[in-house]
């Protein structure tokens, strides 16, 4: 059973494990660091051949979670090194061709600014790129990638959160309207009427008409819609509450979120847990309690099913299953999977600090 402050201690252990196993300088340059894509780290990982831009944005977000949990100058120094490492390794500036990647870095940089590590130029560059991504093809929304035919929730959700936050910190007057328009488009064009969940995205013809809808359900999609609704406040509270109820019914087992394997999928449920925690704290609806329950149960399952290896716990891609070994081809090697588990623990720690009440009946028995 989770006890007071235990979630924070668990998050701290996860933080140290990820940092000790994955963090490496960028090409030996002082003042830089990035997370190696896999552990044990092979030679491509040591020199960051695989960059995984958006994984690094979530690594930065996790470090900022830890800074909120236990502020220190050492973490702020690590934030600066991560930001510099991302810029150095990205080579061509702050952005790339993927609007979802860019939005995630923008969100992390906004949080870094609030923590005292500001980079207004980078945020401005990202804002201009995201603003340019909206077109009327498929009814609206921003593209997944430049010069592509796909518009999806994974790009539009974080962009809406970014614009909503930017509107409150001196962005353009239209940024709040942009955030609302994005959420309205996702609700109108990409919501399944039967489950209330949000589909992945849609492909369009050159003339703007819809060619095909990708009707996959990912925890990622529900998380970013929920996060945007929470940021936008009262007009979207009912939709936020409906998303929580749909997630509980269709994407969780005994209150634990389902996984999506390794690779990019390793981050999906961590993203949802992050925004469930925000909903638990800020949503003025009865479903806020359900959001908190999903956070605590998922975090308990992450911890209970961990394995212990060099430098601490290792997490798996399916939180209700025992974690396997970090060997070639296994999801447990992926930084994304480890960040997903760490995010869940930080989300529980946040609710714990705010007086949240963990469930009395753990889903899985504690490991011995």
UniProtKB/TrEMBL annotation:
MF annotations from Gene Ontology: hydrolase activity
One Pfam family per UniProt: Glyco_hydro_76
SUPFAM superfamilies for this protein: Six-hairpin glycosidases (SSF48208)
Entry keyword Transmembrane: no
GO biological process, one term: carbohydrate metabolic process
Keywords: Hydrolase
Keyword Acyltransferase in record: no
Record protein name field: Glycoside hydrolase family 76
Origin species: Saccharothrix espanaensis (strain ATCC 51144 / DSM 44229 / JCM 9112 / NBRC 15066 / NRRL 15764)
């Amino acid at each position: 059973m989770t006890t007071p402050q235990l979630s924070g201690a668990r998050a701290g252990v996860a933080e140290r494990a990820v940092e000790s196993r994955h963090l490496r300088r960028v090409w030996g340059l002082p003042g830089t660091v990035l997370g190696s894509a896999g552990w044990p780290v092979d030679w491509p990982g040591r020199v960051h051949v695989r960059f995984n831009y958006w994984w690094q944005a979530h690594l930065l977000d996790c470090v900022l979670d830890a800074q909120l949990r236990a502020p220190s100058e050492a973490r702020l120094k690590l934030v600066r090194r991560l930001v510099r490492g991302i810029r150095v390794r990205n080579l061509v500036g702050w952005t790339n061709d993927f609007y979802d990647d860019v939005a995630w870095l923008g969100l992390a940089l906004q949080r870094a600014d609030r923590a005292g590590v500001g980079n207004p130029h980078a945020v401005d560059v990202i804002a201009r790129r995201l603003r340019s991504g909206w077109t009327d093809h498929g009814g609206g929304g921003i593209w997944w990638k430049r010069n592509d035919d796909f518009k999806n929730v994974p790009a539009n959700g974080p962009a809406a959160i970014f614009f909503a936050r930017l509107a409150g910190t001196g962005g353009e007057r239209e940024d709040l309207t942009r955030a609302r328009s994005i959420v309205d488009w996702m609700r109108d064009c990409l919501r399944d009427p039967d489950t209330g969940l949000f589909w992945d995205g849609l492909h369009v013809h050159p003339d703007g008409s819809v060619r095909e809808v990708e009707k996959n359900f990912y925890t990622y999609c529900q998380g970013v819609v929920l996060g945007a609704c929470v940021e936008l406040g009262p007009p979207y509270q009912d939709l936020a509450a409906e998303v929580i109820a749909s997630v509980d019914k269709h994407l969780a087992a005994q209150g634990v979120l389902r996984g999506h394997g390794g690779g990019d999928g390793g981050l999906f449920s961590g993203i949802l847990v992050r925004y469930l925690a925000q909903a638990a704290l800020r949503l003025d609806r009865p479903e806020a309690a359900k959001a908190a329950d999903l956070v605590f149960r998922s975090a308990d399952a992450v911890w209970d099913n961990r394995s212990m290896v060099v430098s601490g716990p290792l997490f798996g891609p399916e939180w209700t299953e025992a974690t396997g070994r970090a060997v070639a081809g296994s999801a447990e090697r992926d930084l994304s999977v480890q960040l997903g588990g760490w995010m869940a623990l930080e989300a529980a720690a946040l609710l714990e600090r705010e007086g949240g009440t963990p469930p009395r009946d753990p889903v899985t028995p504690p490991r011995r």
